[in-house]
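<instruction>
Derive structure tokens from the sequence

<record> Sequence and structure tokens follow
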Amino acid sequence: MDLVNMKNNEPVDWRDDKTLQDCMMYMLEKEMMCDVTFRVGDGRKTMKAHKNILASRSEVFHRMFDGSLPEKREICIPDIDEDSFTNLLRLVLIVSFFDKYTHYRNKGQSD
């Protein structure tokens, strides 16, 4: 835990008052429980992510992790810069939750 209640110096759960999307973004940014490592850009910057999230939203990532020859090591992607790849990882999370919200909202309107 990396937060402390300033009033009585007790540990605070980082998930408190966060939505599922907030928690997933926090885990991505803090590289918590990540299970895949990418090396991106010319400098081969190390970036970590969650296979299940990427594979659930992208056929390319799904095949990369679960195809006939799944990647087992670090994955090098030299033709994308660090900022763009970071934005891609964040976008996958945001779109995942937006799609779910839109699906349920639209389903409720048609009932």
About this structure: The longest strand covers residues 36-40. The chain has four helices and five strands.
